[in-house]
Amino acid sequence: MNRKLKKDLKKLYQPPEPLRKQAFLEELPKPRISNWDFLWSQAGYIRKWNWIVSVVVFICGLCVGTDKGKQFTSVLAAMIPVLALSFVAEGSRSVRYGMEELEMASKFSMKAVLMAKFIILGIENAVLLAILFPLLMRNENYGFLSAALMILFPYLLSCFCNLAIVRKIHGKESIYFCSTVCILISLCIYGIIYSKINIYSIMEPVGWVLSLVILAVLTVREGKRILHQSEELVWSLS
Fold it and tell me: 30: which DSSP letter?
């Protein structure tokens, strides 16, 4: 009896079809945010240890100019891969911690969040590395090419390796592989500085410049692949 009564009530009190629903929704105010405001909002989510690493690298750069015993030079060389690690680890945090579903429910897509973090940390690291050039060249032992190799080569190599690892290995385990790669690169640079190996004799200056360009291109390509992969993850979860 109750079921029949419910059916009759549904027939009698059936709500009418909504009129101009889509037009009404389009008239509602849509709050927008500029690209700069979006970048600024994402900067607040970057963890403090990334900025601490940058400060340590900058302090080492200040000390390298008058470093005759190369103590600070070796520390600076060892910290460059750590700077690259902080860039990749923070930029890919959403991917490593499996936050795809959470990003799908948020206002901004995961691709937009990843791109914003890469832009913020990339600009910050680029400014820091540019400042290190004149600081390092204050030391008589380093010219422009040697300073570029000491700063850019380990940074780009670490970024490329870490981005490739994050793209291929999902989950928290990827950070352990990234850390291992950065430690190995730091140890190699540390050993080259103290063993006084003339690495410039391995290739001509043009070869070293070309190697830096190739590493830069490979690093950018890996970053684009991660952004493209973030779109694929969202579609696979939809």
Answer: -
